[in-house]
Amino acid sequence: MTEKELPASSAEKWITTVKSEWEQIPDFGIDPGRFKHLAIICDGNRRAAESRGFDSWFGHRVGVEVIKGVMETSRKWGIKHLTFWTWSTENWKRDVKQVDFVMNLAARYLRDEETIGKLFEHQAKFTHIGRKDRIPDEVRLAIKDLEQKTATFDNLYVNLAMDYGGLDEAARALVKISEMISGGKLSPADIIGNPGVVLGFLDTVGQPVPDLVIRTGMLPGEIPRTSGFMPLQTAYSGWRFIPELFPDLTPEVLLDHVKDFLNYQRRMGK
Questions:
Q1: Are 228 and 166 spatial neighbours (Cβ–Cβ below 8 Å)?
Q2: What pLDDT digit, counting tens, does each position of 75-96 carry?
Q3: pTM score, two decimals?
């Protein structure tokens, strides 16, 4: 089933509702020195669609609108760095039709004038994190094109974690480090004396680590899990596991968790 074959009134109503919710952004300002990076594990797209009687893949389509809304909201609040984890290294195990739809959706919206137009309007730098060798050519070329066109922007930074896995990222970083050591450009003592050096070999090199990670779609009674998301970058991050499915996330819900984070005094081992 394609998007046009959906019950038009119901599908359009859901998308319109989500867009409307994210147009009503609460007034709020964040000290950039206290909150630099928000990361979201976008879970629950399929469940949100199925609960409304749609095929599961339509949830990803609505999730695109939430991503756009979070981008606009974060920009207005003063959060300069955003990461959205949309596809893991394990997600390739899903039904081939599901995989094809998500990849086609990514190819479409990475070139959609309305979607990427916001990146240019707000001078936002786009970065893909994760593997690139398994992503379909159409998606990979769209990513490369967008990264090149936004490379000099610095008002907002948007990371798309696609075909991303924390263990995979660590393995790729280890390869880079071993090559540096074998080439005489780095020594084990350099790393032991300054463990933070390792961050320079990760996909998020040059960016601040996440202050807050929100995982949507946690089921009642479910034991929270990080699923390997940025294991090194999030060592001192705050985590929130929330029941709202990603398409059901609203500015008000997001603001509640941001405020909770800002009101919490981290001791950082002191």
A1: yes
A2: 999 999 999 999 999 999 998 9
A3: 0.93
> Looking at the domain that runs over 34-164+210-224+234-263, which CATH code has it been given?
3.40.1180.10
19, 65 contact by CB (below 8 A): yes
Angle 173-79-216 (CA atoms, 0-180°, nearest 5)?
70
User: Is residue 24 packed enough to be buried (19+ CB in 10 Å), middle (13-18) or exposed (0-12)?
Assistant: exposed
**What tokens does 93 get?**
């195990």
Q: What is the mean pLDDT of the chain?
A: 93
Q: Which residues contact 158 (CB under 8 A, 6 or more apart)?
A: 71, 82, 83, 84, 119, 124, 125, 126, 127
Cα–Cα–Cα angle for 257, 259, 263, rounded to 5 degrees = 120
Residue for token pair 């038009």: 8
What's the CA gap between 168 and 228, in Å, rounded? 9
Residue 259 parent element (H or E): helix 251-263
Q: Tokens standing for 192?
A: 């032991």
pLDDT of 31 > 80? The answer is: yes
- Residue 187's alpha-carbon distances to 44, 170, 173, 180, 199, in angstroms, are 44, 18, 15, 8, 16
Domain ranges of the chain: 34-164+210-224+234-263
Q: How far apart are CA 184 and CA 179, in angstroms?
A: 9
Cα end-to-end span (Å), the chain: 56
Give the pLDDT of residue 109: 93
Tell me which residues are annotated as active site.
43, 91
Q: What is the CA radius of gyration of the chain?
A: 19
253 exposed, middle or buried (CB, 10 Å; 0-12, 13-18, 19+)? middle
